[in-house]
């Protein structure tokens, strides 16, 4: 765990450094409210751990990890506006705290800082751009065309959540100068973890306590959003089993990779388990 905390500390320190450099002061305050209000830092940890798993150093991947966390935060700001969510990570969402206009500007600011971190490597920029195209398609689909089957839901989950997870892992492999086969394998691992994460998120929205979760629950049903519970006939327990299947397939994908750091890979295995079992 000490090793894991050191990696997390690297990410947090660099994230704070990036936020500290943002101007003007108003934008700095708004970005700080979003980016430094907590969070599991799952995506940047995937970036760093993937890099080490395939032979790189943690420090090589930190900037890319911080970048993907900023992209994720930018998407959450917009999600909260769309969903009218007043709470995020146990505190006020950006639009609730600052208003709709400033919140949108905050999202733009987060994306700008992120792409400045990716700009050192054309492959990194390409990977993240592709993931954002998928994310945009997923968000648009969710608002305009409700999925009507489990298969359609899984496609939506892959785009909405899996795409950024995939980018996070591929960024780690890119930072380690990996070959295309390795980049693809770790990408599949992370995409499946992301889908499992989204399924579990939907289940928690349906059954968890809002105070424990740190954000409002019941939103999917209230807004008729396409959650796994709403779209399919699966019970929460059955949905969790679907999440576990995705996690198992993620591990299968990761086992195809030539491993340089078994300890780092073990943490990625643990992450696949965590996303299925998490309580918030």
Characterise this structure.
There is one protein chain. With 280 residues, the chain is mainly alpha-helical. The chain has one domain (2-270): Farnesyl Diphosphate Synthase, CATH 1.10.600.10. Helix content is 77%, strand content 1%. It has helices spanning 2-20, 25-35, 42-53, 58-83, 94-98, 100-118, 122-144, 150-175, 180-207, 210-213, 219-222, 228-231, 236-254, 262-277, and strands at 87-88, 91-92. The chain has a two-stranded antiparallel ribbon. β1 (87-88) and β2 (91-92) form a beta hairpin. α1 runs antiparallel to α2 (25-35), α1 packs across α4 and α4 runs antiparallel to α8 (150-175). It is globular and about 50 Å long. Belongs to the FPP/GGPP synthase family.
Order of helices and strands: HHHHEEHHHHHHHHHH
Helix percent reads over 70%
How many angstroms separate the termini?
A: 20 Å
Helix and strand content put the structural class at mainly alpha
Descriptive terms for the model:
two-stranded antiparallel ribbon; 77% helix; single chain; 280 residues; 1% strand; 2 strands; mainly alpha; Farnesyl Diphosphate Synthase; globular
Describe the secondary-structure layout.
Layout: H1 2-20, H2 25-35, H3 42-53, H4 58-83, E1 87-88, E2 91-92, H5 94-98, H6 100-118, H7 122-144, H8 150-175, H9 180-207, H10 210-213, H11 219-222, H12 228-231, H13 236-254, H14 262-277
Antiparallel strand pairs: 1-2
Helix pairs in contact: 1-2, 1-4, 2-6, 3-4, 3-8, 3-14, 4-6, 4-8, 7-8, 8-9, 9-13, 9-14, 13-14
Care to give the gist of this entry?
InterPro entries: Isoprenoid_synthase_dom_sf, Polyprenyl_synt, Polyprenyl_synt_CS. One of its GO terms (molecular function) is prenyltransferase activity. The chain is built from 14 helices and two strands.
């Amino acid at each position: 765990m000490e090793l894991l905390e050191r990696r997390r500390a690297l990410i947090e320190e660099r994230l704070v450094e990036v936020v500290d450099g943002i101007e003007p002061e108003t934008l700095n305050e708004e970005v700080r409210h979003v980016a430094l209000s907590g969070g599991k830092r799952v995506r940047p940890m995937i970036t760093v751990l993937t890099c080490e798993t395939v032979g790189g150093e943690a420090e090589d991947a930190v900037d890319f990890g911080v970048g993907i966390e900023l992209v994720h935060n930018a998407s959450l700001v917009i999600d909260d506006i769309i969903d009218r969510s007043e709470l995020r990570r146990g505190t006020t969402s950006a639009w609730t705290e600052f208003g709709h206009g400033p919140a949108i500007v905050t999202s733009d600011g987060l994306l700008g800082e992120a792409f400045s971190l990716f700009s050192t490597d054309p492959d990194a920029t390409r990977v993240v751009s592709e993931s954002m195209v998928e994310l945009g398609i997923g968000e648009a689909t969710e608002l305009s065309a409700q999925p009507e089957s489990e298969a359609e839901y899984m496609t939506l989950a892959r785009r909405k959540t899996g795409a950024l997870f995939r980018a996070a892992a591929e960024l780690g492999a890119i930072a380690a100068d990996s070959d295309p086969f390795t980049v693809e394998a770790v990408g599949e691992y992370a995409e499946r973890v992301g889908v499992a994460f989204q399924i579990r998120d939907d289940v928690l929205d349906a059954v968890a306590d809002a105070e424990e979760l740190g954000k409002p629950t019941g939103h999917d049903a209230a807004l008729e959003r396409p959650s796994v519970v709403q779209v399919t006939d699966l019970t929460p327990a059955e949905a969790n089993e679907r999440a576990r299947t995705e996690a198992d397939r993620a591990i299968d994908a990761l086992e195809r990779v030539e491993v340089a750091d078994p300890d780092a890979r073990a943490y990625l295995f643990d992450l696949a388990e965590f996303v299925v079992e998490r309580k918030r």
